[in-house]
Amino acid sequence: GKYKWQNSFGGINLENCFSIQQTNDSGFVLCGYSNSFGTSGYDAYIVKTDSLGNLQWQKNYGSNDWDFTYWAEQTQDSGYIIAGETYNNTMHAYLIKTNSDGDTLWTKRYGGTNSSGFKEVHQTPDKGYIAAGYLQVSPGNKDFFVVRTDANGDTLWTKQYGSLSNDSCNSIALCKDKGFLLAGNRDTLTKHKALFYKMDSLGNIIQTVFEKNASGNRSISHIIESVEGDYVLIANTDVGGLGGQEIRMDKYNPGGWWVWGRSFGGTADDEGYDFIQAQDSGYALVGYTASYGLGPDNVYIAKTNSVGSYSTTVNSYVSVKEENAEQKSIAIYPNPSAGKFKKKKKKIIGI
């Protein structure tokens, strides 16, 4: 978990990154959006790096309106599948398929006349795709939205799952039985409650886990099927023993019964966004923390063993660029000094 390198990507305006995946050449593919490049407004923005984070290529995709992407991963042909939303009178769920250089092979919109968007996409074993996100049914009422396509992005089936309130889908996962896991939250009065489904290969629900009676807010950010065949998820909750908003990791068996859970974070707000299962069957999660580090918000990474246990000792690292900037701009005299400090003529003087 020690810091090794960093890089930044983008132009003179705003960029935002939502997803990073390692590629088969040990590099990385990142996706998000940018308004530094492209036609107008915000465009989908994809970056490909080598194993050390050096830029190999970058691409933007979109129309004359707004385009956002939230997930990108490499496909069996070494190209990429990218999921998000695109605006054309209304928001539409959006898939982009590229070759290995990021050149567009096809783009598809889904969702009809209702506003919709995708949060995650995966290639299925038959080289098709499964994508999930939201479908706006009416004002104040969203449903989980799932689209299964063939290799060309043509729809094989669509499903929507919901209630009379907002149901927000954040993640979909492939399962070894060719089914899927679908996760997010449902609004109940003034609270968000964690919700996930187990589906078969045709999108039929065979299991529902809904934490209706749990206290506070809880929303699932990401879900996977573990190598053992269990369901593992991370969620953000404002109810727990740490204080503030904290990160939760929970494991359920295939019957939908809770096995174990762990909390991450400190006394301030912390959020978890994504995680993977490591080669040692433990888990590595990433998010942000306001509880630890040098500034108000910092990247938060935790590594667990196979049952979610981890060291609560917090190691803080400062990037090389930030260290260099601090060393060049700060001088303290006398050093050490016990007392107050004030800024004077671009130096810190002990008094």
Element layout with pairings:
Blueprint: E1 15-22, E2 28-34, E3 43-49, E4 55-61, E5 67-74, E6 80-88, E7 90-98, E8 104-110, E9 116-123, E10 129-138, E11 141-149, E12 155-161, E13 167-174, E14 180-188, E15 191-199, E16 205-210, E17 218-225, E18 231-237, E19 246-252, E20 258-264, E21 270-277, E22 283-289, E23 298-303, H1 320-329, E24 332-333, E25 341-344, E26 347-350
Parallel strand pairs: 24-26
Antiparallel strand pairs: 1-2, 2-3, 3-4, 5-6, 6-7, 7-8, 9-10, 10-11, 11-12, 13-14, 14-15, 15-16, 17-18, 18-19, 19-20, 21-22, 22-23, 25-26
Describe this structure in words.
- Helices cover 3% and strands 54% of the residues.
- By secondary structure, it is mainly β.
- Strands 1-2-3-4 form a 4-stranded antiparallel sheet, with no helix packed on it.
- Strand 11 (141-149) and strand 12 (155-161) form a beta hairpin.
- Mean pLDDT is 90; it is low at 323-329 and 343-351.
